[in-house]
Amino acid sequence: MATCTAEHHANHSHRHGADCGHVAIRHDGHICYLHDGHLHYPHGDHVDEHVIAVSTTNPVDCTPGHSCGAYETGHVHGPGCGHEAVPHGDHVCYLVDGHLHYPHGDHCDDHGRIELA
Q1: pTM (2 decimals)?
Q2: Per-residue pLDDT tens digits for 72-107
Q3: For the chain, what is the mean pLDDT?
Q4: What top-level branch of life does the organism fall under (predicted)?
Q5: What is the DSSP string of 46-111?
Q6: Handedness of CA 17, 88, 92, 81 (dihedral sign)
Q7: What CA–CA distance (Å, rounded) separates 32 from 66?
Q8: Domain ranges (residues) in the chain
Q9: Cα–Cα distance between 53 and 50 in angstroms, integer?
Q10: Which listed residue, 10, 17, 21, 22, has the most CB atoms within 10 A of its CB?
Q11: 116 bridge partner residues
């Protein structure tokens, strides 16, 4: 059996599954769950911490022409804004209508689509 090399989420008592109440996304051929700003992958007797990799699908480009409407209405993405936090590369994005928004100055950058499960 292969050894798990992913970072484990310590002391995780919640069982993720189809009806657990957390947003499920398809990630690297399996299902992960967004939970309190973490991307959890139930794996055997523990939960792994995953991150959406920077890629051509989920780049880190600045996209000042991306109009998400949030800034026009005064909405600012951040903790407690009502959108799920998603770890992406070395930063946190927010899940809005199936894609990643990254707050950047006076606009949101579009960091690509996420496939909901």
Answers
A1: 0.83
A2: 677 888 888 889 999 999 999 999 989 999 998 888
A3: 84
A4: Bacteria
A5: EEEEE-BPPSSSS-----TT---STGGGT---STTSSSEEEEETTEEEEEETTEEEEEETTEEEEE
A6: negative
A7: 27
A8: 22-116
A9: 9
A10: 22
A11: 25
Nearest to 25 by CA among 81, 106, 88: 88
Q: Contact 34/27 with Cβ under 8 angstroms?
A: no
- Paired with 93 in beta bridges are 86
Predicted confidence at residue 36, as pLDDT, reads: 86
7 vs 14: CA distance, rounded Å:
17
87 Cβ contact partners less than 8 Å away, ≥ 6 residues apart: 37, 38, 39, 49, 50, 51, 52
More confident residue, 56 or 82: 56
AA identity, residue 40? H
